[in-house]
Design brief:
By secondary structure, the protein is an alpha/beta fold. It is built from ten helices and 14 strands. It has a seven-stranded mixed sheet. α2 crosses α7 and α5 packs across α6. The protein is elongated.
Length: about 375
Amino acid sequence: MKLIAKTFHGLEEVLANELNEIGALNIKKVNRAVEFEGDLEVMYKANLHLRTAIRILQPLFEFKAKNDQELYDEVQKFDWSTLMTNKQTLAIDPVVFSEIFTHSQFVALKMKDAIVDQFRDKTGIRPSVDVENPDIRLVIHMAKDKATVSLDSSGDSLHKRGYRVQGHKAPLNEVLAAGMVLLSGWNPKIPLVDPMCGSGTILMEAVMIAKKFAPGLNRKNFGFMTWNSFNKELWNKIVEEAKEKVEHPRLHIYGSDINMGALDIARESALSFRFNRDINFKVSAFEKLELERPKGMIITNPPYGERLMKDKDIKDFYRMIGNQLQDEFLGYDAWLLSSDTKALNNLGIEVSDKVKLFNGALECGFYQYKINYGKLPKIIKFR
């Protein structure tokens, strides 16, 4: 079957590599997604194993529509009884980029009407809508007059690993954090430090990567589990194989933050996945942090414009980061995610590499700095 794995901008290459590892075929990178082909087993593995996928879609059909009546008629041409019954619930997620259809929820409403009207005409009973926990979740992607209707095999977004404390909003999505670790090329045999770790998302994703712990292993529900085609025996086999592949290497992973409340959340997340022995947490400001490990990697998402109020604070803060990296972290590779290029100029360190990423709607750069030298000696000027 043809499938699509959705992701964030800048992570397409990483996602394509992940898909290759699970046996996907005809892999093709597109904007914020990767198209591929595979059987039921590959689709199940994609939902369970992919760290940089947001959701896995199965395209059903395409059509063109120049008005709401054409949209309604085209959706009604599909036999929806092959996918669901009138007793099952459905939800429709619209993604619309069109001058013809300017309201995405209107597109979803017309599609919903076409589906439930078909059931009413055939059976006398209309299926119900459940936007929170539907049996069948559909996605309609409308670009100009071209529509693609897909089944959502994931249900909840795949970034929901199950370790985040309920009600807590971290500044970094799990998929993005995993992508950052994979983009950095971190080797689990060397130390990893996040000196401004907040609730620990980067570190949790790093531990899962090092342990070969499938990101969906602790999830109970996926969208495909309510499909008529769900093969429970095959799914259980894939899950058991994933459990057997989990490794338990000795890791040197360190997280620090000045916010004790955030670290409490990070510790709770680690404990919930039994990673508490894999991550060393410490309350500390970055400028006071000292490590005994001579070489390693830093991956961090420091505060930038939206999280620091004054320009002067931002300049001083980033200057401090640069000084600390050169004072205490010689021999380290440092990767920083930031949207503030002006602030980064205050680091005083040359950029080795950069990847364009998005944190939500915010365009960011993921910057690599090789800390191969200490602070340069002061130049004494003679009058």
